[in-house]
Amino acid sequence: MKQKLPDTVETDDLHSIGLSGLVAAAQRYQPSQRNTFAGYAATRIRGAILDELRRQDSLSRSSRAKAKHLELAICKLKQERGANYSREALCQEMNLSEDELADLMEEASPVRLVSLDEVDTRAGFADYPLHETIPDDGCFSAADALERKEIISLLVKRMAQLPELQKKVLAMYYYENMRLSEIAAVFGLTESRVCQIRGQAVAVLRTYLTRLLA
């Protein structure tokens, strides 16, 4: 997964996130399931990493669509004219002025394009393209937004009832964006123990939310 991500994504961060997915897999795996533990754990690890990447992603769907359009235009020009195509040719290809192209390139510059139809066929990973894995949660109706606000309010109240250590770990991980290894150093615990504490807190909140929405 690291090979498909920009250099700004740290390997240590992916390792910490993956470790949380591994702990969750160990807690929830049932030997009676058809999947082997290796396959089940790989899916949970991949899911944990995708969830965290979605949480950190601040780019809009519109920016990604524009970046895709720009990439296709550049690829076409490279095939037709080679790598030394002119900026003017790119403007003509995209039917944009110089200023409009400059604005588009600035907007799309943080985007690294990954095909949503791409399937990771390596052993141990589910053969599903990204467009079937990543939900489209970019838009909310007024009713959905109100319900979401009420649910968040109730979750905040439930979080306040968690043990002090669990609250601190959640705050450091989700609000201060600290790595599990950094949190472990603060409390003098192992990284796996901190990951377990975080997982337990999330499980409590997930169970509460499930009952709330039942």
Describe the structure.
The protein has 214 residues and is mostly helical. It has 3 domains: 1-59 and 115-138, no CATH class; 61-108; 139-214, Orthogonal Bundle (Arc Repressor Mutant, subunit A), CATH 1.10.10.10. The chain is built from 9 helices and no strands.
- Runs with pLDDT <50, length 5+? none
Provide the structure class.
mainly alpha
The gyration radius over C-alpha positions equals: 22 Å
Strand content: under 5%
Q: How many independent structural domains?
A: 3
Which terms would index this structure?
214 residues; mainly alpha; 3 domains
Layout of helices and strands:
Elements: H1 11-28, H2 37-56, H3 61-81, H4 87-94, H5 98-108, H6 142-159, H7 164-175, H8 180-187, H9 191-213
Concise structural overview:
By secondary structure, this protein is mainly α. It has helices at 11-28, 37-56, 61-81, 87-94, 98-108, 142-159, 164-175, 180-187, 191-213. The chain folds into three domains: 1-59 and 115-138, no CATH class; 61-108; 139-214, Winged helix-like DNA-binding domain superfamily/Winged helix DNA-binding domain (Arc Repressor Mutant, subunit A, Orthogonal Bundle).
